[in-house]
Amino acid sequence: MSRIPRSAKLVVVLAACAGLLLSCSSSGGKKAGSSTGGGASGNAVDVKNFSFNPASLSVSKGTKVTWTFDDGAKHNVTDSKNTFKSTDLSGGATYSFTFNTAGTYSYICSIHPYMKGTVTVK
Questions:
Q1: What is the DSSP letter of 89?
Q2: Could you state, in order of their start, the residue ranges of all structural domains in the chain?
Q3: What is the pLDDT of residues 65-77, one digit of tens each?
């Protein structure tokens, strides 16, 4: 039985990591809502089971937050100050907004007003 060179093992590991990263960063063909620029990953809100998860998010100025609508029912995100508002979305669609001004942004789903969330921007 022959040994596999260390360099070949490294190539296999790197290829596997690259494939994993590509699958994580892929939009999967999902339709995006409004987007106003870049931001860091990990600033995502899932809209599922008639709730925002996480309900509260704290980010730095210039961060893009993305909501993914995974319920069968349509939902939206509507800021109480009309700073941002998505269309009614479902089925894996996304909406993104970049927060460039510090403050606290309370939002709801205007279809289901008991669904509430907050983004705090520092």
A1: B
A2: 29-121
A3: 999 999 999 999 9
CA distances from 76 to 2, 20, 42, 92 (A): 59, 30, 20, 12
Q: What is the C-alpha R_g of the chain?
A: 19
Q: 29-121: which CATH architecture?
A: Sandwich (2.60)
Token pair for residue 116? 């509430």
Q: Which residues contact 52 (CB under 8 A, 6 or more apart)?
A: 45, 46, 67, 77, 109, 115, 116, 117
pTM over 0.70: no
DSSP bridge partners of 45: 67
- Residue keyed to tokens 């893009």: 64
Q: What share of the chain is helix, strand, coil (3-state, %, to 5)?
A: 15, 35, 50
> How far, rounded to the nearest angstrom, does the alpha carbon of residue 87 sit from its chain's CA centroid?
16
